[in-house]
Structures are given as structure tokens and as C-alpha cells.
Amino acid sequence: MNPAVQTLLEEIAQAKRRAAERKQHAQASGDVPSTTHVPQEPQPPSADECCGNGCTPCVYDTYRAQLAAYHQAKPPPFIPATVHVRSSQPLGARARLLVLDASEQTFPVRLGQHVHLRTEGTAARAFTPVMLPDATGTVRPHVLVRVYGPGSSSRSLAELRPGDPLMVRGPLESS
């Protein structure tokens, strides 16, 4: 087996073990697993909620404080990006290994996070990239794509060739 593929499979198995351990520890300790919490934006007060008497704090002061806290706590928006496929290696008849033309600096995905990938005209699918060194020694995202039936988004991803664009959203916390 290709050493890069073997390393990728070992990294995936290790990530799954760590995720299971974190989940088991969280359940045992009663902690909530680490996920991205998206706070709900506060609603402005209606005009009849303010009495106009200069109360301290006024309902508008409370709203502004809640809105500031919301903007501070809100996670950064998903910024859609386009990366290009650097290489595409077949792994048997039903899988491909895509190496994306990005680096750790331009593609900051940590262990336990996933991204949504899609090609033009297909639905996005979640993948967990593994950051591994490529043949040049540069650490790049590697994505294992299992190929399903015709017309599936995995099929269109598996048909990508070096230089083809790929739309990315994320990273997201895996739960």
C-alpha cells in the first residue's frame, strides 16, 4: 500500500479513537462536547417598550449591550473559498485520495474539524481532511473520497484532476 495512504488511514483511525475518547469523557463528566455554538441575535425592543423617562438602564441600553455581546461571541462566518486539486490518486475502484493545493497557513483545519466540499453544480458533502506532508515536504490537506453511485457528489469529486477548482466551506467542529 502507498505509504501516504497508509499514513492517512492511520491518522483517520487515530482521529476516530480520540473523538470516541472525548465523547466518552464528556458523557462521564457531564460536560457538553465541544461544538461551535452559534448565539441567537437579540431582537430590538419595540417602540412601546421604552417609556421615554431616561431609565437606567433603558431597554435600548440593554439591547445595545446584548448586541455587542452577540457580535463578540458570534463565530466568524464561513468564508467560501476555492482551492485547486494538486493531485488525485486512485485507491482501488471506489476511492480516491485528493491532495489540495493549500498549506497549513491557508487551510487551517485542526484534528476533529471538517469542511464542506463541492464542485460546480453539486451538493456539498462533509469531509475530514488530514494535514500530511506531500512529496515536496509541504503539509497539505489530504481528503479521502469514497465513490458512490453515478450522479452522486462523491463521483464528481472523484473525477477531479490536478488544477480543477473545488469549493470549500469551513472549518466546522465535528461532533
Indicate the low-confidence ranges by residue numbers: 32-36
What's the total count of β strands?
A: 7
Largest sheet: 7 strands, antiparallel
How far apart lie the N and C ends? Answer: 31 Å
Mean pLDDT figure: 80
Question: What is the N-to-C order of secondary-structure elements (H for helix, E for strand)?
Answer: HHEEEEEEHE
Radius of gyration: 22 Å
Number of helices: 3
- The share of residues in helices is 25-40%
Describe the structure.
β3 and β4 form a beta hairpin. It is elongated and about 75 Å long. The chain has a seven-stranded antiparallel sheet. It is built from three helices and seven strands. It has 175 residues and is of the alpha+beta class.
How is the secondary structure organized here?
Elements: H1 3-29, H2 59-73, E1 81-90, E2 95-100, E3 113-118, E4 125-127, E5 130-133, E6 139-146, H3 153-158, E7 165-173
